[in-house]
Amino acid sequence: MEAVRCCVRVTAASLPVWGDWTDWSTCSSSCGDGVKTRTRPCVDPATEKTVSSQLCYGRDQELVYCKGESCPGQSVCVMLALFTRHGE
After folding, report:
1. Is the full-model pTM beyond 0.85?
2. How far is residue 14 from each of residues 9, 17, 40, 42, 50, measured CA to CA in Å?
């Protein structure tokens, strides 16, 4: 069996590129710690259609930590812990 060699010319203009980031989501928690996320599509410039994010270099999602308001009862628990002696 004879091996067949095949070459494909790839130019930078034909490679998929990242689209714009979405706005940050709201915090995943209304009280206490949570996360916000944003995503971006991988786009084929020839068709302007979204393609698999595996075809673009880099990440398609970012996460940041966020802090909501204090949870109801949270400050009471903290204060009780401060004024309770260990073992009692």
Report:
1. no
2. 10, 9, 19, 13, 14
